[in-house]
Amino acid sequence: MLGPVILAASRSDKMRRFVSAAPGTKQVVARFIAGETVDQVVPVVKDAAAQGLEVTLDVVGEDITTPEQATAARDAYLELIEHLKPLELGPRAEMSVKLSMFGQALEGGHELALANVRPVVEAAAAIGTTVTLDAEDHTTLDSMFAIHEELRKDFPQTGCVIQAYLYRTEDDARRLAANGSRVRLVKGAYKEPASVALQNKAEIDKAYVRILRILMEGDGYPMIGSHDPRLIAIGQELARSAGRKLDEYEFQMLYGIRSEEHVRLAAEGHRMRVYTAYGTDWYGYFMRRLAEKPANLLFFARSMITKN
């Protein structure tokens, strides 16, 4: 089981330095990271829009240790919004944020994260788009859901993410589906103990389907975060069974993974949103992408022995 090992490595400073210095790293990182600066990511957004795709943009970075870093993360998103404004894409270009970037893990972190993320949500709403709060490890979720609920009082379009492998998620899905929020369902990409999360892939897939059915039959807006062809097909069938129109749910996939499927789904009339990460602090995000799929790790290993 390489996944848990890679996830552990995602928190290792020694491994971070090794991976960053390895030959071929830049080539592989470029597959998953759309650029290092906002100026580099804007052309990616324009290209996606030209193909009928939508995007959710993530400024990568999670290991925040000071309030000043949290403020800088807020400002990076505000800069992004200023660059999105003239594109006039509205909700076709939204943003995803990790509250850990906004200071959630610091002393007084819940209040600090809320204070930092609110201006981002306000600025997003001002240009006709919105923000989705990403899920992180299980210890952060009560805070994330509380911030989500608070933000939705003024910005009801604010979304959140739930993770199928956690035992708690079916209850979370019922609560969220009942009040009409935007919910992205993913399998889960953090190393979680067996006391709180399923460990078997087949069981996680079954949980994903159960939870997706709850969302489809509820009053919210489901966002299907998966690259699995079987789960995508099941999602389409559940949407049909629930009587949902094509604009009443969407698919979401990662930048650089199954790109041809992005275009195919959009061509069929589905809303297809590409999770597009950018920035210089890419290590944690990149390692989770490797952990999710063995083929990604093989691709990286081959590149490490290839000279730039």
Based on the model shown, name its key terms.
13% strand, alpha/beta, 308 residues, 8 strands
How does this model look, in words?
This protein is of the alpha/beta class and 308 residues long. It is 51% helix and 13% strand. The chain has 13 helices and eight strands. The chain has helices at residues 2-9, 13-21, 25-32, 38-50, 67-84, 109-126, 141-152, 169-178, 201-217, 229-241, 259-267, 283-292, 294-304, and strands spanning 54-59, 93-97, 131-133, 159-163, 182-186, 221-225, 250-254, 272-278. Strands 1-2-3-4-5-6-7-8 form an eight-stranded parallel barrel, surrounded by seven helices. The longest helix has 18 residues, at 67-84. The radius of gyration is 18 Å and the shape is globular. The two termini are 30 Å apart. Mean pLDDT is 89; it is low at 303-308.
Radius of gyration: 18 Å
Strand order of the largest sheet: 1-2-3-4-5-6-7-8
Strand content: 5-15%
| Structural shape | globular
User: What is the overall number of helices?
Assistant: 13
Order of helices and strands: HHHHEHEHEHEHEHEHEHEHH
The parts where pLDDT drops under 50 for at least 5 residues are 303-308
Largest sheet: 8 strands, parallel, barrel
Total beta strand runs: 8
Task: Summarize the topology.
Layout: H1 2-9, H2 13-21, H3 25-32, H4 38-50, E1 54-59, H5 67-84, E2 93-97, H6 109-126, E3 131-133, H7 141-152, E4 159-163, H8 169-178, E5 182-186, H9 201-217, E6 221-225, H10 229-241, E7 250-254, H11 259-267, E8 272-278, H12 283-292, H13 294-304
